[in-house]
Design a protein that fits this description.
single chain; globular; 99 residues; Alpha-Beta Plaits
């Protein structure tokens, strides 16, 4: 079993980054994500020079834990808000966790 880690870049439509940040800060946002089975770390950062660009760094016990979490968010409809505010497709960068 190996740790699943990735970073992602989300470029939001102009002026909508704050809406997505508000979701992450809500009771249904980061607290739910971080309490999900297998979540080791989940950080959301905004780009200092462009507040409509969000970067996520996440680590999960396994790829299966991440997949289950993603399915939960899709089934709940939470992903619709994020997808609806995207200016372009997100970029996902898989990482190898070294230590």
């Amino acid at each position: 079993m190996s740790i699943f880690a990735q970073t992602a870049v989300f470029k939001m439509k102009p002026g909508t980054g704050k809406n997505v940040v508000s979701f992450f800060q809500s009771d249904n946002g980061l607290a739910v994500t971080r309490a999900s089975k297998g979540c080791i770390q989940f950080d959301v950062l905004t780009d200092v020079s462009d507040p409509d660009t969000l970067r996520i760094y996440e680590k999960w016990d396994t790829q299966a834990d991440f997949d289950a979490y993603l399915k939960f968010r899709q089934d709940s409809g939470d992903m619709n808000e994020l997808i609806g505010n995207l200016a372009e497709p997100p970029v996902f960068i898989p990482l190898t966790f070294i230590g």
